[in-house]
Automatic annotation (TrEMBL):
Organism of derivation: Quisquiliibacterium transsilvanicum
Keywords, sorted A to Z: DNA-binding
Name listed for the protein in its UniProt record: TolB-like protein
GO biological processes: phosphorelay signal transduction system; regulation of DNA-templated transcription
GO molecular function, one term: DNA binding
CDD domains: trans_reg_C (cd00383)
InterPro entries according to UniProt: OmpR/PhoB-type_DNA-bd (IPR001867), Sig_transdc_resp-reg_C-effctor (IPR016032), WH-like_DNA-bd_sf (IPR036388)
UniProt xrefs under PROSITE patterns: OMPR_PHOB
Segments forming domain OmpR/PhoB-type: 8-101
DNA-binding region: 8-101
Name of one Pfam family that matches: Trans_reg_C
Length: 283
């Protein structure tokens, strides 16, 4: 299964480079605009470029835990071909897709444990966004909750200085009873973002929380209301509202973490001053 394959630090092909840990596609060194689903599909195809990826595999990797129509897959493949060229992804009739661009200069793939140890050694702040809880029996609310979580992931990926875990990894904990500290340990992250979507008669309330993974302590919480009949249209606005309030709190939490480190750790001290400057700019 695609989700069980160790990720490479970098996959290069032609003018392009995939950076899985950063969830970025670079074209000629410039970050490309790419949605979360399209990125996960590209990563799945590139990692398994030595073979055909079936449609079921691709759907499972890009939409874990969801039942979606195949046309969603076609839409994402089309978006990737517009970025990479029409011949970058071959359609294998009746089977699936194959990534056709030749990769070069690939860094040897580490296993999960060595990736976590490397992150710990560099003291990089890591964060994962968990699936939002759905407080409604309406399936449309469920789709909205997943869309919001994905938008938050996509927006957090643009925040410099933080290493974001892909939604394919964090969404694997959907419906599990594991505690937050245990989830954080398994994902190897310092911070968790979780949330919920609750439906009332004419209103949807979206709640989001930032949790310190080591202690399980709530670092920030916020709620956002939207008319129920326009929530889907306002999904991106709601996600941006969450990020607008979440990002400075995340930065402040990281400052507090760094303050607890020894000042002799010059790298940590430098990151501290960078974070202070970021908060000053954000107000």
């Amino acid at each position: 299964m695609p989700g069980n394959t160790p990720l490479q630090d970098s996959i290069r092909f032609g003018r392009c480079e995939i950076r899985p840990a950063e969830r970025r596609l670079l074209i000629d060194g410039t970050p490309a605009v790419l949605g979360a689903r399209a990125f996960d599909l590209l990563l799945c195809l590139a990692v398994h470029r030595d073979r055909v990826v079936t449609k079921d595999e691709a759907l499972l990797f890009a939409w874990p835990g969801l039942v979606v129509e195949e046309n969603n897959l076609s839409v994402q493949v089309s978006a990737l071909r517009k970025l990479l060229g029409p011949d970058a992804i071959a359609t294998i009739p009746g089977t699936g897709y194959r990534f056709t661009l030749a990769a070069s200069d690939c860094v040897a793939p580490p296993d999960v444990e060595s990736f976590r140890q490397g992150s710990a050694a560099n003291d990089q702040p890591t964060i994962a966004v968990l699936p939002f809880h759905v407080r409604s029996g309406d399936p449309h609310v469920g789709f909205l909750a997943d869309g919001l979580a994905e938008d938050v992931i996509a927006l957090l990926a643009r925040v410099p200085g933080f290493l974001l875990i892909s939604h394919a990894s964090s969404f694997a904990f959907r419906g599990q009873q594991a505690g937050l500290t245990d989830v954080a340990r398994q994902l190897g992250v310092r911070y968790l973002v979780e949330g919920s979507v609750r439906a009332a008669a004419t209103l949807l309330r979206v709640s989001a929380q930032l949790v310190g993974a080591g202690s399980g302590r709530m670092l920030w919480t916020g709620s956002f209301d939207s008319p129920r009949d326009s929530a889907v249209d306002l999904q991106e606005d709601i996600a941006r509202g969450i990020i607008t309030r979440l990002e400075p709190e995340l930065t402040r939490a990281e400052i507090a973490h760094i303050r607890r480190q020894r000042p002799e750790n010059l790298d940590a001290w430098a990151h501290y001053h960078q974070a202070v400057g970021a908060v000053a700019l954000q107000g």
